[in-house]
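Hi R.,

Here's the chain you asked about this morning:
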Amino acid sequence: MGTHTKKVGICGKYGTRYGATLRKVIKKMEVTQHATYGCTFCGKNAVKRQSTGIWKCLRCKKTMAGGAYVLSTSAAITVRTAITRMRKSKGIEV
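And here is the predicted structure, written out as tokens:
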């Protein structure tokens, strides 16, 4: 097993290889992909990544599509906001 790492966290497995900047980018991705996210169906903080872009709630067993490393990407949030704004301006309720 690897030794305890204070600064590098999950990227301690790479040691001194690949350069500091690349390891920082990889650390950000790996931390976000291993985190648990809130479920939009049941409200619990139990959504985990199954594989690239596939997320599953461990409580209500719902499977949903999302980003590769994050459940909801910034582009998806922007589109969702724009659609909501357009619906509100036309007076359509869902």
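One quick note: The helical segments are 20-34, 74-90.

Cheers,
M.
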